[in-house]
Amino acid sequence: MRAILMYGAGDVRVEEIPDPVLQQPTDAIVRIVRTCVCGSDLHPYHNMPASEDGTQMGHEFLGVVEDLGSEVTGLKRGDLVVASFAFQDNTCDFCREDVQASCRHGGFFSQAQAELIRVPQAAGTLVKLPVGEDSPLLPSLLTLADVYGTGYHAAKRADVNPRTTVTVIGDGAVGLLAVLSAKQLGAERIILMGRYKARTDLGREFGATDVVAERGEEGIAKVRELTGGDGTHAVLEAVGYMQAYEQALGVVRAGGVISRVGVPQYEEGAIGWGMFGRNLTLTGGPAPVRAYIDQLLPDVLDGKVEPGKVFDRTVSLDEVPDGYRAMDRREALKVLVRP
Amino acid sequence: MRAILMYGAGDVRVEEIPDPVLQQPTDAIVRIVRTCVCGSDLHPYHNMPASEDGTQMGHEFLGVVEDLGSEVTGLKRGDLVVASFAFQDNTCDFCREDVQASCRHGGFFSQAQAELIRVPQAAGTLVKLPVGEDSPLLPSLLTLADVYGTGYHAAKRADVNPRTTVTVIGDGAVGLLAVLSAKQLGAERIILMGRYKARTDLGREFGATDVVAERGEEGIAKVRELTGGDGTHAVLEAVGYMQAYEQALGVVRAGGVISRVGVPQYEEGAIGWGMFGRNLTLTGGPAPVRAYIDQLLPDVLDGKVEPGKVFDRTVSLDEVPDGYRAMDRREALKVLVRP
């Protein structure tokens, strides 16, 4: 089959590799119908040391079940399914506590930008979709694999509700879907911090009431000005850089929550009196996307929300290297792939 | 009146200073019946630069209302009252959101080790006690001013409940009362990390099911061993040193909460993938003690709990310098003062 491999920073290739096969009785093989490039794929695209062994890429996909291990229940060949970006048994104590990224039999996918994928813990990972391969809903359904559930996680962890004011830091796909999620959870005031007008326009469509293009101290001052000097109860941080964390500390209201879903690209940060004295909470992490699919799917199927609007370019598998480049240059917000 | 002043590290003096007077119509003057020395008073006792101007000390007190400003409602001269360690109007938006340490008209006391004290925002800060000056409950009632409410805050912020396993780091008064609070909130497994047997024995009396005397990596290994390798859902950090924060990171379960009530003696700490990847939450801060007094008072009055057991020495105002020394040398857990 054809698959995407990264050989180092900036070096993305399409290659012919062996088809995956069932290894465990709990596995499935899925033929990928839609996959995409994630903002988090850009971190290795910037940093990966060059190597002669390529690394398969991609963790978001929906597709058709081609083969099933003997112990997989609840699925059959031909089912159209969406997967969570992390696989899990969905039965262990961590899964039941909604910390599925820490599942006792779990792990992260990194083989989804391909024609086929082996899915461990298929029964706990794949969710059957009640639509066909030609459904116009596929882009929105694909966001359930990661970016929508991840934006929703930011909002849930920050306990966003109708009484909460919200700042979202980052106008990437996750940030924009954090806006959408905050709106779904009832927030009436949602300030989006982002610099790219096409993206922040989509953010307004998703529910942002204010857009702050400034960053750093200037951005902090702007958000404070919009909130009577106090900042917002919830800050959903969907970037992952230290500057975004510092911005979050600057715009959060006393007693408020900084909820991170951007993978932190730093090891240490300010957690002293500036955080403690104001009773701030820092939370977040890899989303239990599998748990959220059940909650988010109905509104997607009904067309009440259209998270798939974050995709603004569609490419074939052969064009994926161009897709990475376009996202890296901010020419594309999020690239959909039809293998 | 006589009052305690600190002139630098280790330099605590008893001095004659002018009596406080009403300054605002919202003030009260209280004659102090009981005050005490706090673990957090030991930080300046170690670090305060020497100065010719002494600094008044103390933030925990109960006493009798001597004088009232014209706008103070709900209190009268002669009332026996307990104060929260921070004063607040108890009506502003932050107070209503239970972030009373960030009250718009609030501040922290530092004049309680004395014969008299001026109490700003008296109506929002003082709570009338239905007992007399000679009540044997006074030590327990005094803990409502800070250490009991602070231990309770740690447990509340960590959402301790009957399904939560708990580790408490620190066997000072706050740590021991965090144990008591976790027990009151229904926790069935409470591991206390502390090295002083007399204190950890009191911790067992308050509800600790296990005691781990080891610290650092060894202590972490011990707690993990006690919890099937996973750590506990809640970690209540009642120390404030970096070593305690690192210990907290080591013993917290994936998806769990580190709730700090020890004032952090550091500015930066690990908040990278090690925290994010495990969906950990970091929370805590100065407790909204005023809000908790209403919740905690009934069980103290009924004698159902005896948080006052943390006091193991009683001194006069003149003996307060000895009291600091005894707490610093771990000869006393917490020193009660009868001015």
UniProtKB/TrEMBL annotation, chains A, B:
Protein name, entry field: Threonine dehydrogenase-like Zn-dependent dehydrogenase
Xref: Pfam families: ADH_N (PF08240), ADH_zinc_N (PF00107)
Residue ranges constituting the Alcohol dehydrogenase-like C-terminal domain according to the UniProt record: 173-269
DNA repair listed as a keyword: no
Coiled coil segments of this chain: none
The organism's place on the tree of life at top rank: Bacteria
PANTHER family: DEHYDROGENASE, ZINC-CONTAINING, PUTATIVE (AFU_ORTHOLOGUE AFUA_2G02810)-RELATED (PTHR42813:SF2), ZINC-TYPE ALCOHOL DEHYDROGENASE-LIKE (PTHR42813)
Domain Alcohol dehydrogenase-like N-terminal: 25-130
Keywords: Metal-binding, Zinc
InterPro entries xrefs: ADH-like_C, ADH-like_N, GroES-like_sf, NAD(P)-bd_dom_sf
Record GO terms (molecular function): metal ion binding
Cofactor annotation: Zn(2+)
